[in-house]
């Protein structure tokens, strides 16, 4: 497809940018960080979502270059954020395999001056498909540096619960499909309750994605879930808008 050839040019031409979706403390609703989400402002096609080009970038290996750019860009933005706000960056499994992610992270932190504890990396269960010693070593090194590892889209993958207990991670993000349905669908609510209990048992923090209303927020708070993200608290927005939201939450 034509997009494939345009990715590299797009990066050189600064057509990629990041938006930041607020992550909140569910007890208080206050903003504690944000997830960086990639966008491509294509010269003729308009804004393209990552679901349309990440797969292409993974297939041709460009994801590593794009991933390095994102790390630096996200860390640079987070340096301007007040308090101890964290930035969560999505990482493709290929960045562990085809690239030296640990080195990329070290360089991004060094270049921008962001403290490691303010950087979170979101990985998916598919990262563990190839559970090599190298992968485990990289994750261990990142955590030793102080970087937080979150397991994204939890509940949509293939992992058995037994596997989860052995993953070297700090928190899990329950997939938004369960949260969005939990007020109307008993099965979804049961899954959220079970995952919250599981996280507590494994001493993992939990982030609830896709919170669109007050009902979900109240339920999740009652379940003791620590952190949340969703349109109710804020859509993906610019770094400046995020800082304004932190200062003046509604
Ligand atoms: O923001 P949006 O809903 O369009 O994101 C769609 C998917 O693309 C999300 O699941 C998100 O995890 C993924 N995504 C967004 N930004 C990045 C990125 O910078 N790198 C990778 N690997 N995935 C991303
Ligand atoms: O897979 P990942 O969690 O990285 O994807 C995040 C994506 O989910 C973002 O692109 C964001 O736009 C979208 N998103 C975040 N909050 C909500 C929400 O409350 N409702 C819906 N429908 N989508 C959301
Ligand atoms: Mn994510
Ligand atoms: Na997710």
From TrEMBL:
Name all EAL domain ranges.
1-250
- Shown portion of the whole protein? 679 to 928 of 936
Native organism is: Peteryoungia desertarenae
Instruction: Report the protein name in the record.
Output: EAL domain-containing protein
Which residues, by range, are in coiled-coil regions? none
